[in-house]
């Protein structure tokens, strides 16, 4: 695969080896390395080796290539520590969605207990929705394909 780099991108620098990383897996298409924050032990980032900003920037081939690697890497992280009981796999897109590095990446976050140092909240707002409200949103999305 031909890789496009962004000279100002910290993850491109990691991919090129200009900045060191604790790499756990690498092939022609992706690099997986420990997130410096280690939100939970084993917190790993998977990045495409070509610079794409966010999920909206992938073509179908790149998506197929990159996302196909996630189960392989997730299984390896899980197998690395018997205390890992589960795993959140998270991909932030846009500042409002907590993206802080604008080279797309997938977080693999091992979970040890339900009150370890990672949390994700899905509020249940269903009481605010009737059929018309759901249908309006459904139609707006369906119209984009
Ligand atoms: P985001 O907030 O964009 O979803 O995630 C970016 C992640 O990149 C953060 O969890 C942050 O800890 C991690 N990060 C930022 N800079 C570096 C770095 O130089 N090396 C590594 N290994 N991780 C980094
Ligand atoms: Zn980049």
TrEMBL record:
**What are the catalytic residues?**
105
Q: Where is this motif: Histidine triad motif?
A: 103-107
Q: List, alphabetically, the Pfam families matched.
A: HIT
Domain HIT positions: 10-120
Q: Which GO terms describe its molecular function?
A: catalytic activity
Q: What's the superkingdom here?
A: Bacteria
Which example biological process does GO assign this protein? Answer: nucleotide metabolic process
Q: Which InterPro entries match?
A: HINT, Histidine_triad_CS, Histidine_triad_HIT, HIT-like, HIT-like_sf
Q: What is this protein called?
A: Histidine triad protein
